[in-house]
Specification:
The complex is a heterotrimer.
Chain A: E1 11-16, H1 17-27, E2 32-35, H2 42-51, E3 59-62, H3 66-78, E4 83-87, H4 89-105, E5 109-117, E6 123-127, H5 132-137, E7 146-149, H6 153-170, E8 173-179, H7 180-183, E9 186-191, E10 235-237, H8 251-266, H9 269-272, E11 275-278, E12 285-289, H10 292-306, E13 311-316, E14 318-320, H11 324-333, E15 336-341, H12 346-355, E16 360-365, H13 374-381
Parallel strand pairs in A: 2-3, 2-4, 4-5, 5-8, 7-8, 12-13, 12-15, 15-16
Antiparallel strand pairs in A: 1-9, 5-6, 7-14, 11-13
Helix pairs in contact in A: 1-2, 1-6, 3-4, 10-13
Chain B: E1 10-17, H1 22-36, E2 40-45, E3 55-63, E4 75-80, H2 83-89, E5 93-102, E6 115-117, H3 119-127, H4 133-144, H5 150-159, H6 163-184, H7 187-197
Parallel strand pairs in B: 1-4, 4-5, 5-6
Antiparallel strand pairs in B: 1-3, 2-3
Chain C: H1 2-11, H2 28-42, E1 49-53, E2 68-71, H3 77-87, E3 92-98, H4 99-105, H5 107-116, E4 120-126, H6 161-168, E5 172-177, H7 181-193, E6 198-203, H8 207-211, H9 219-228, E7 230-232, E8 248-255, H10 261-276
Parallel strand pairs in C: 1-2, 1-3, 3-4, 4-6, 5-6, 7-8
Antiparallel strand pairs in C: 5-8
Helix pairs in contact in C: 1-2, 2-7, 4-5, 5-6
The chains are: A alpha/beta, B alpha/beta, C alpha/beta.
The structure holds thiamine diphosphate, iron/sulfur cluster and magnesium ion.
Iron/sulfur cluster is lined by residues 22-23, 26, 28, 57, 127, 131-132, 206-209 of chain C.
Chain lengths: 382, 207, 277
């Protein structure tokens, strides 16, 4: 008997990076958005405002500020939703306390930050990549975090899906960092059929409520999560807590809780650290880039190759945990590593740390609100 | 869809005043080339104070190969619908690039070598709606792009516009296309001439 | 009395290490008792009750009760509560906040929750001081009073929480005290059953950090003060005016039926999805 194959439904769109993020979120099963408008991220919010009310149980709410947006997003996540918010620099700064809370209570959710020029109100409509270290260390206290980036519009969709998957798989907030260029470029994208995409969801408890330990260690280090209202009446707190979720200051319990938070991410570096290689096999000069600058770098590498220079490109799709193995390999093989970025050297610092003095690291830094051009990078390669 | 012709980075800038619908034009043009023709297209725009009231611009890069750098570097086609836009961006044109202006507004182009149509006047007088200037320009640009199929462009335009304004814009598009065909001559010839002369020689197509 | 104690025990978490953090004489425990009695009287299943707490002594009460409990961040409890309510409107979401929590750091969220009329109950435990951090002044500390950060007397006026919430659009607004426990049960019960945003401000003595600094010899004095310095709002000739003798009116100040934000949202959604079919 012939198997009935469902016809795949793909959609082609000519979309902004921001619109692609919204498409990716909906594809990943996001059913809750809380936010506050800010350029250059607002289109994400606007698409969600149009789409979520038309989806069964989809919730969209505009909050009074970004602190409230993060609070509501965490609340929805605890109630079992796949939830997200999006913002830009000033709003991202306001979200930091709650990002730490989400780390502590292990609430899966996605925060998109479309980077614009700063500090402060800075350059609201110009690109920058200057929130990279804030994404890593913005909230207080020691904590692991997953930070992803995207450099073209299709990738905006794909990395948003990945962000949700990582959030659910590792029970952690995931930050997707875009820059204004990527967010505001229109390109053709293909929205895949939901059946073609791997969508992960958090693990829920299998034991009866009276046996359930909401923060118990597991092989993966990720505890099962019971949505509020499902009959598992748990306590959630930003205070350091024991396996029952109750506040503790006992050094042994505190240590276990903290180390598990790190371990659940650390032991899956191989899964989380994503990067793309281009022409690196025989490269003598390697460019390490991310976001829209990686596109400039791509053209620069092509041009360098045309002129006979052995250049290659490593595009970082995961910014944190920093893809150390991929970068380390380059520092062993190439005589120069070029790091162009729209800040004064936030990622080149990481590259230098991994490089440990082995090879030459050349930085290209722009903080004038302009994207780094291919010719600037080409000059540094040659 | 026919297989797209090979093109390696063709860069277009649509520039002029806020309110002329240039960002929409960029989106419509980009969408028609990307979804209608199957080219790789990146479309970007200027935002911010610059994009309020005063000047406005949208850029489109077209290629038959994946596009790495999404912005424009040196222009193949500059559309300038205001004297300021014309003067500030003219120097970004390639030697072999083309300049298309709105002759209602741009009285003194910085070069003798340019193409022009009185878009503003045509939109007002022949269509009766000044808002249609952008789709009229799209018609003219369609004629100038040797790799664009006019039928596909029109279909895509219509698909992207709300019903209320579809008809009037289709009319404007057709008029822009027709006037460009009549006054500029065959697109292949225009580009061949541009190639031969560079954009800076004296004796060229002036309309 | 034994029954009441037994009832309370039915709602406390027994796998949690007691003792609790509250000082002797603290009013916060009385409010927790009242909340438990209200939930019980209303017959709400524990599984459907979510207690969302801010940070402060008041916020610590969440951990002791066997509901779904979320201990959030200072001032932001209502934002979490809004997310939970919108994500699962079937749940009864109750927010416990201190005066500093709700009115100082979280004032913006309070007025917006009231404006939206989100179906959440806010219990604001007003002890007129920052208890947890050791007795600094809050935006509800009366003018002239002494605190660690107003050692020469506070120069600023205190917020009137009831006036504030009414003005911001809350559809149920009440005030009680930890002394008037029976009335408090009634106020909290009506607040929980009220559709839309409901606020109960509870004057709740903090003998440790407020009383000592402000001429109350002990906790008992503070409860006596609450008894003689409050007046039932319904006994006032003009309930819209504050009494001239400075007594604090208690009771229900507004109770109007308006659908909560979540009801309006899902109603709109049903309509939109009906059209789309
Ligand atoms: C962002 C932030 N700022 C300051 C604090 C410190 N803090 C903890 S509780 C508190 C005040 C508590 O006062 P109140 O809300 O009135 O509650 P009470 O302890 O009186 O019940 C402060 C300032 C904090 N936890 N978080
Ligand atoms: S400090 Fe005040 S509010 Fe805090 S527990 Fe003690 S008496 Fe209660
Ligand atoms: Mg207080």
């Amino acid at each position: 008997m012939a198997v009935q194959r469902k016809k795949r439904k793909r959609r082609e769109l000519f979309a902004l990076g921001n619109e692609a993020v919204a498409e990716g979120a909906l594809l990943a099963g996001c059913s809750f958005y809380a936010g506050y408008p800010i350029t250059p991220s607002t289109e994400i919010m606007e698409v969600m405002a149009n789409r979520l009310p038309l989806i069964e149980d989809g919730v969209f709410i505009q909050m009074e500020d970004e602190i409230a947006s993060m609070g509501a997003t965490i609340g929805a996540s605890l109630a079992g939703r796949k939830a997200m918010t999006a913002t830009s620099g000033p709003g991202f700064a306001l979200m930091q306390e709650h990002i730490g809370y989400a780390c502590m209570v292990e609430a899966p959710l996605v925060v998109v930050n479309v980077m614009r020029g700063g500090p402060s109100t800075g350059l609201p409509t110009s690109p920058a990549q200057a929130d990279v270290q804030m994404a890593r260390w913005g909230t207080h206290g020691d904590h692991p975090i997953i930070v992803l980036s995207a450099s073209d519009v299709q990738e905006c969709l794909e990395m948003t899906v990945t962000a949700f998957n990582f959030a659910e798989k590792y029970r952690t907030p995931v930050i997707l960092l875009l820059d204004e260029v990527t967010a505001h470029t229109r390109e053709k994208i293909t929205v895949p059929d939901p059946d073609e995409v791997e969508i992960l969801s958090r693990v829920t408890p299998t034991v009866p409520p009276e046996w359930f330990k909401p923060y118990a260690d597991t092989a993966r280090g990720v505890p099962a999560m019971a949505p509020i209202g499902s009959g598992y009446r748990t306590h959630v707190t930003g205070l350091t807590h024991d396996v029952m979720g109750y506040p503790t200051q006992r050094p042994d319990e505190v240590k276990d809780a903290m180390l598990r938070l790190f371990r659940k991410i650390d032991q899956y570096y191989g899964d989380i650290q994503m990067s793309d290689e281009y022409m690196l096999d025989d490269a003598e000069v390697a460019v390490v880039a991310y976001g829209s600058v990686a596109r400039s770098a791509h053209l620069a590498v092509e041009q360098a190759r045309e002129r006979g220079a052995k250049a290659g490109l490593l595009t970082l799709k995961t910014l944190f945990p920093f893809p150390r193995p991929a970068v380390e390999k380059l520092t062993h093989r190439c005589h120069t590593v070029v790091v162009p970025e729209m800040n004064m050297g936030q990622m080149s610092r990481e590259v230098k740390r991994v490089n440990n003095g082995r090879t030459k690291v050349r930085t290209i830094n722009r903080v004038d609100g302009q994207i780094i051009t291919p010719s600037e990078i080409l000059k540094a390669i040659l | 869809m026919k297989a797209p012709q090979p093109i390696d980075r063709f860069e277009i800038r649509l520039s002029g005043l806020g309110g002329q619908g240039l960002i929409t034009l960029g989106r419509l043009l980009g969408s028609a080339l990307a979804l209608g023709h199957g080219y790789y297209v990146t479309q970007t725009q200027s935002y911010g104070p610059e994009a309020r009231g005063g000047s406005s611009r949208a850029d489109v890069v077209v290629s038959s190969r994946p596009i790495s750098y999404p912005k424009t570097e040196s222009l193949d086609l500059l559309v300038a619908l205001s004297p300021e836009a014309c003067n500030s961006y003219y120097r970004l044109l390639k030697k072999t690039g083309l300049l298309l202006v709105d002759t209602t507004l741009v009285k003194h182009a910085p070069t003798n070598v340019y193409l022009g149509l009185p878009f503003t006047q045509m939109a007002k007088e022949q269509i009766g709606n000044p808002m249609t200037i952008n789709t009229m320009v799209m018609g003219a640009v369609t004629h100038l792009l040797p790799f664009a199929d006019a039928r596909v462009m029109r279909k895509s335009l219509e698909a992207n516009l709300p019903a209320k304004i579809r008809e009037v814009n289709a009319k404007a598009f057709a008029l822009g296309l027709k006037q460009a065909q009549r006054h500029f001559g065959d697109a292949g010839g225009i580009w061949a001439a541009a190639e031969e002369n560079g954009a800076h020689s004296e004796d060229d197509i002036i309309v | 009395m034994a029954d009441v104690t037994q009832l309370i025990h039915d709602y406390l978490r027994h796998n949690k290490k007691f003792p609790h953090v509250f000082c002797a004489g603290c009013g916060h425990g009385i409010v927790l008792g009242s909340l438990i009695r209200s939930v019980h009287a209303l017959g709400l299943p524990k599984d459907d009750v979510v207690l969302v707490a801010g940070i402060g002594c008041s916020g610590r009460m969440a951990v002791y009760v066997d509901f779904n409990t979320v201990h959030t961040t200072h001032g932001r409890a209502l934002t979490f509560a809004t997310g939970i309510k919108m994500a699962n409107p079937r749940l009864k979401v109750i927010c416990v906040m201190g005066d500093g929590d709700a009115m100082s750091i979280g004032g913006n969220h309070l007025i917006h929750a009231a404006r939206r009329n989100i179906g959440v109950t806010a219990l604001i435990l007003n002890n007129q001081i920052y208890g947890m951090t050791g007795g600094q002044c809050s935006s509800a500390t009366p003018q002239g009073d002494i605190s660690m950060t107003t050692p020469f007397g506070s120069l600023e006026k205190a917020f009137d929480i009831v006036d504030m919430c009414k003005a911001a659009g809350a559809s149920y607004v009440a005030r009680g005290t930890s002394f008037h426990a029976i009335q408090l049960d009634r106020l909290i019960s009506s607040a929980i059953m009220h559709p839309g945003f409901s606020v109960v401000e509870v004057f709740s003595p903090c003998p440790t950090q407020y009383g000592r600094k402000n001429k109350f010899r002990n906790a008992v004095d503070m409860y006596k003060w609450l008894k003689s310095n409050t007046v039932k709002v319904e006994t006032l000739k003009d309930p819209t005016q504050k009494p001239d003798d400075g007594r604090i009116p208690i009771g229900v100040f507004r109770d109007v039926e308006e659908p909560g934000l979540e009801e309006r949202y899902f109603e709109l959604q049903r309509k939109l999805m009906g059209q789309n079919r």
